[in-house]
Design brief:
9 strands, 9 helices, alpha/beta, single chain, 5-stranded mixed sheet, Purple Acid Phosphatase, chain A, domain 2
Length: 220
Amino acid sequence: MKHFSSLTPISYLDHEAIRRHCGRPFATVEEMGVAIATGWNSVVSSKDLVYIVGDFAWKNHRKWINDLNGKKILIIGNHDKMPQDCLDMFKPDWAYEETKLTDVVKTMQQFREVHQQLDRVICGQRMTLNHFPMRSWSSSVHGTWCVCGHAHGRCKVSLPGEIGGGLILDVGWDVWKKPIPFDVLKAEMNKKLALMPQNFRDHVLYGKPLGRIDNDEHID
């Protein structure tokens, strides 16, 4: 199964102020870390693939790489300043001989890829994965989704049910409290599409000419 998560809270595991800034219901950062890891592992198995849309860890990177289930693809966020040996853990198995990492590190390898931005067809759907909410992205006018994080639920147009920014969704912890599977992501994007202007829906769903979209400048 494929899951999508921003994991912006993970990047602040030892950051006391984030509890106040985001109004999180935890007494300590340690309690917050346990809750995030428990929620993650309740929905992600060791065989699942998770796309992490930035800000994976503030520190203790190897601990969280190993404590959280699943094979992971990282789209780098502005707080992803982990050491190179931890970034190397994102590489596929064949890369280990080149990096000359120890057998101990090999056993901890769970990551598959690292990107600044990822444009890819996933489960048959074209997507752009970026840490930051985007105003426009490749083929957004043709129905490509933008999956993002960073904003801690404070970028209105990227929230569920909002269409002011197009087919874009914040998958961060402050919105969902755990990684979301592809079927949830698809359902939310379909809800957004249903609220779009009729000519945009017809273009995305049936390939009809787009024509003019009045009062919807976000679809450019």
